[in-house]
Amino acid sequence: MKKITGFICIMVLAVMALAATAHAGERAGAFSISPFVGGYIFDDSKLPQRNYTQDRLLGGLRLGYDWTDNFATELVGTYLKVEDAATDDEHGMYSYRLDLIWNFMPRSVIVPYLALGGGGTTIRYKHANSHDGTANGGAGFKIFLNDNIALRADGRRIIDFQSDHARENIARNWEYSLGLTFVMGGRTMKAAPAKAAAAEPGGTVAPPPAPAPAPAPAPEPQPTAAEPTPGHYKYCITLQGEFDIDKAIVRKELRDQIAQVGNFMKKYPTTTAVIEGHTDNVGSYNHNMDLSQRRAQAVVDVLTEQYGIDRSRLAAKGYGFTRPIADNATDEGKQKNRRIEAIIDCAFDVQQVTPPERLCMSLVVDFDPGKAEIKPQYRDEIAKVADYMKRYTTTTAVIEGHTDNTGDAAHNMKLSQQRAQNVVDYMVKNFGIERSRLSAKGFGSTRPVAYNNTAEGRQKNRRINAIIDCVVNK
User: What is the overall mean pLDDT for the chain?
Assistant: First the structure.
């Protein structure tokens, strides 16, 4: 019993030392391999086990499969040397069993579990082997060091139904172990970004410096940015509300903020919305992607059930910690990043509604290939932004320039920056907008909204966006 107590103490210290590592837990569909070492304590009240040396070193291997995040099965094999205390004779003991595992908090860094199973043991003597049936129950936990590797501690009570020739045929033994679990497959794994990007006005996140052009670029992603189509606007509302840790239940204070979205969409029934979930960087990429998706979906459910918004007008999208608007190095920054964004698509004249927190306009401004000069026919398009900012004089705006992937990355970054800057200069010169209220940002081809393998897709990617921060008295 002292050895078991010592083992538990060591595990507690391990948890304290590693609790700061933030990575994903179990994932459905994953296979696992878990080598381990530990000890085996025989029941000293039963024959023949009271004749064995009590605490023996064992080694073993578990092969597992996660049917769901919570439920898994494992095939387990172990080996140890049984020593007769009187004669010092040693005999090999093999055990084999099938275990059922129930994981608690499967998406956490530390995943506790309960185990129940059955199997058998074989002790190899010189002249004959002894075969016993076994049942076991116990508990343990895993500490995920990253998405694919976990430290694992396990303790079991082994009920040994001894062979018929044993005078006392039920023994109650102990097994404890420490090992590693290697997880393969399951939900698709993705690399997390190295660190949070700096935030631009209006919540737009500045990308890292443009990478050197690759000789064989990967296929471009599907559109992920909530950007308006020409003639539409994006009415953006940020909902800052705390969720319970690892939960997606909407609290009352957040429901009060959701009312802004629900009432707006009821007033304007042609609008649609994407509800975006965002987290801080505590936890792994996969865990936060899943958590942010569940939280966004919970907000969609509130809008549907309490405000009668048709589900066809709503979509939920979780971004995890990939789009921070503040520095995750501080508690205040983490709190800002734990947010819900309601991105409402508006097809009407946005100047007729109360200004939102943030407004995104997509301008139809066509540039000659490799050029950044603004043609006179696009004055009216740029006037949409200027007129709005003149009406609401406390607003500020970031003018974003985007290109297709024609040419190298460095050239496209420079070209997009110049095009955005020319739009800023045009608004200052022709519409009298103070330069201090405007800034330009070029993104090159890093944020496509369509595939670049067609002329139509490339045209969509050559665009100017105006991201307007609306700091007004409502």
Answer: 79
Q: Measured between alpha carbons, how far is 18 from 143 in angstroms, rounded to an integer?
A: 7
Contact 200, 467 (CB under 8 A): yes
As for how many domains the chain has, the answer is: 3
- So what's the pLDDT on residue 196? 40
The per-residue pLDDT for 223 is 45
421 contacts 441 by C-beta, under 8 angstroms: no
Q: Is residue 214 part of a domain?
A: no
Q: Identify which of 153, 183, 178 has the alpha carbon closest to the alpha carbon of residue 23.
A: 183
Residue numbers of the chain with a pLDDT score lower than 50: 1, 12, 14-23, 188-207, 212, 214-231, 348, 350, 472-474
Q: Are residues 45 and 87 in contact, defined by beta-carbon separation less than 8 angstroms? A: no
Q: Residue 55 — φ and ψ, nearest 5°?
A: -105, 110
> In terms of DSSP bridges, do strands 438-442 and 396-402 run parallel, antiparallel, or are they unpaired?
parallel
Exposure on the CB side of residue 215, measured as CA atoms within 13 A:
0
367: containing domain:
355-474
Regarding pTM above 0.85, the answer is no
Instruction: Say which CATH number the domain at 381 has.
Output: 3.30.1330.60
Tokens 């004055």 belong to which residue? 379
Q: Cis ω on the peptide bond leading into residue 48 (within 30° of 0)?
A: yes
Distance CA 47, CA 168 (A): 6
Instruction: Please report whether residue 216 resides in a domain.
Output: no
The per-residue pLDDT for 358 is: 61
For 331-343, write each residue's pLDDT tens digit.
888 888 888 888 7
Q: How far apart are CA 70 and CA 66, in angstroms?
A: 8
Final residue of a domain: which of 348, 380, 412?
348
Q: List the structure tokens of 209.
A: 């410096």
Same domain as 162, residue 32: yes
Same domain, 370 and 267: no
pLDDT digits over 83-96, tens only?
Answer: 877 777 888 889 99
SS3 per residue for 226-269: CCCCCCCEEEEEEECCCCCCCCCCCCHHHHHHHHHHHHHHHHCC
In the block, which residue shows the tokens 């296979």?
31
